[in-house]
Amino acid sequence: MARYVFITGGVVSSLGKGLASAALGALLQARGFSVRLRKLDPYLNVDPGTMSPFEHGEVFVTDDGAETDLDLGHYERFTGVSARKTDSVSSGRIYSTVLEKERRGDYLGKTIQVIPHVTNEIKDFLKIGEDEVDFMLCEIGGTVGDIEGLPFFEAIRQFAQERPRGQCIFMHLTLLPYLAASGELKTKPTQHSVKELRAIGIAPDVLVCRSEHPIPEREREKIGLFCNVRKEAVIAAYDLKSIYEAPLAYHREGLDQAVLDAFGIAPAPRPNLERWHDVMDRLTNAEGTVRVAIVGKYTQLEDAYKSIAEALTHGGMANRVRVKAEWIDAEIFDREDPAPHLEGFHAILVPGGFGERGTEGKIKAAEFARTRGIPYLGICLGMQMAVIEAARNVAGVARAGSEEFDHEAGAKRFEPVVYHLKEWVQGNHVVARKADDDKGGTMRLGAYSAALVPGSRVAGVYGATEIEERHRHRYEVDIAYRDRLEACGLRFSGMSPDGRLPEIVEWEGHPWFIGVQFHPELKSKPFAPHPLFADFVRAAVETSRLV
Ligand code: GLN
Predict the structure, then answer these.
(1) What residues does ligand 1 touch, defined as CB less than 6 Å away?
(2) What gap in Å lies between CA 402 and CA 382, rounded to an integer?
(3) Which of 173, 179, 181 minimizes the C-alpha distance to 19?
(4) Which CATH fold topology does 3-279 show?
(5) Would you please indicate which residues are annotated as catalytic (active-site) residues?
(6) Most-buried pick from 99, 221, 366, 445 (CB within 10 A)?
(7) Which of 59, 308, 354 to mutate to test the pocket of ligand 1 (most atoms within 8 A of CB)?
(8) Which CATH architecture has domain 288-544?
(9) What does the pLDDT look like over 501-546, one tens digit per residue?
(10) Which atom of ligand 1 is nearest to the CA of 382?
């Protein structure tokens, strides 16, 4: 049976709970334990699938097709453990399950209450797969004291109470603000945050304190004393240059030791941190910089393309170069010539996206990359735009476009080279989408395999002819145009196993031009950079040598 670490936050939001959880997961793995990480989000949306990337950052997709919080991306990048549908839940999902059960009569006419019905539902969620791993790390979103979060805090309190002693611990993240005028770190907000936690019956075993300044020994003692936590379990978390420093930094501060001590695991297995030393070596000993333009829509919030930014960093690590990603709003190209904006970049990436806004600019970016011989990676919408560009400007389909942009009834502005798919094959069964399906959950989501054409560039990049990648889209490139486009040199080098859905296109005779219908960035890890990103950055390095 798994041991549980519940991770909560206090004082302010955005303290890096997700990163601390992910780093702890990596450290427990380094000591030979198996882990699974889980996120419990207090918001009322049923899942993040329909939340705006502006507000919520990227939607991370799992192999089994769940649309989840971007923290699950961190978990995967640090532990390499593929997240599942059952690793993320929101209040909205919990309540909707409870209400469904009530409608079905499962509660036999009882009065439905937060305690026990909602809390039981949360506890059942926590138990899923508990026999599979040594440690289950469960992060509670938000901050202690939030109204929405209360049922989750109550549920983890009950959970720990019901389990044998020593099976669950609580780790709490706080902030130590620094008062420049007096040159002091202030511990009072931390004390209050712990008080709040204790008022709802949770006593933290480990305190992680974010601080911009070194925490003096006596402050650590004071925090320990006032918060009723052992001094050794008061862990400093300083600002880091790279998130990938977190496992080594937390190890230095004694986080994994404190956690194992709290469980009474002695002697603690020695850690093997080679993987993280290698990651840091690649990050710090990089030579040269390549500039990659990301032409997208959600450019104001970097978190909107979190996994892409990380995968590019990993690609840089694979080549021992720094990747400087610069975000360019595609809409600028509606008004202005892209050339002056894109010249000087060593590669261009057009990421995924939804809706028409900015798409003409993305098409122009694809044209610029194709005609100038600049490495291009088109992801999902970025592939669709590359295909439309090829159809319009090379294959003579003047009105080529996507059905996604002809949503008004009867409007037929475009010839649909990219069309709305209603039925497809997953594994060995057919999935159908009804016209009146909800907004959420009507996409081709999760892992699908693709067959690569032997001898193609992608087959070389992957070193394989069968791959599996994660999808999140409604529209597909129409194979009816395959012959015409291939005759012009746009090769369909990856297809769904049944041969119906184009998965990858690449320009023949171009230094590096690949469009993929899936999201390779979701599977990239610092210790295992995704082959497409590694090779894309390699091509960028080559371009940088030419200019
Ligand atoms: N909007 C496009 C579709 O639904 C692309 C989606 C994406 O880029 N993730 O097919």
Answers:
(1) 352-354, 380-381, 404, 472-475
(2) 12
(3) 173
(4) Rossmann fold (3.40.50)
(5) 380, 519, 521
(6) 366
(7) 354
(8) 3-Layer(aba) Sandwich (3.40)
(9) 999 999 999 999 999 999 999 999 999 999 999 999 999 999 998 8
(10) 8
